[in-house]
Amino acid sequence: MDRRKGARETRQGERGSAAVEFVLVLPLVLVMSLAIVQVGLLVKDQLVVTEAARAGAREAAVTLDDDRVRQAAIDAGATLDPTRVEVSIAREGGAGSPVTVTVDYDDAIVVPLVTWLFPDSVGLSATAVMRQETG
Questions:
Q1: pLDDT, tens digit, for every residue of 75-107?
Q2: Mean of per-residue pLDDT scores for the chain
Q3: Among 82, 80, 73, 79, which residue's Cα sits nearest to residue 128?
Q4: Partners of residue 87 on adjacent β-strands
């Protein structure tokens, strides 16, 4: 009988130590999970910035109006904060020459509890080059 009682006490002690280990590891796992979510949001925003640059370059290829080009890039980046978007256009000549559109975006860190792992904002940038059809 003594052997059974000792075996039960050992199993209960192991359960208690597993619970303590879980409590100690859980915050680290949660912080790492939230950091992965934040990185995923940054990657998503980079893809949106790239698409905005492409949309701006497509518009720049068919028009000489830089305001329309900027608006096309901002419209393509619908999920981005327009106050943080900068669009620059560089033309090298007339029809047949390349036009370069660069979109820069200052992305904020939005996931709570992991702001201390990242800088205040992350600069995202994309450039697209297309051949001008007018000009």
A1: 999 999 999 999 999 998 888 999 999 999 999
A2: 91
A3: 73
A4: 103
Segment 26-37 shows an average pLDDT of 95
Asked if pLDDT for residue 1 goes beyond 60, the answer is no
Q: Model pTM?
A: 0.82
| pLDDT tens digit sequence for 9-18 | 556 567 678 8
- CA–CA dist 39, 81 (Å, integer): 18
8 Å CB contact between 131 and 96: yes
Single-letter amino acid, residue 4: R
Task: Kindly state the tokens that stand for 76.
Answer: 């393509």
- Residue 76: name the closest of 133, 128, 37 by CA: 128
* Full residue range of the structural domain in which residue 85 is found: 2-131
Mean pLDDT of 30-37: 96
Q: How many structural domains does the chain have?
A: 1
Angstrom distances, CA of residue 118 to CA of 35, 45, 77: 9, 16, 23
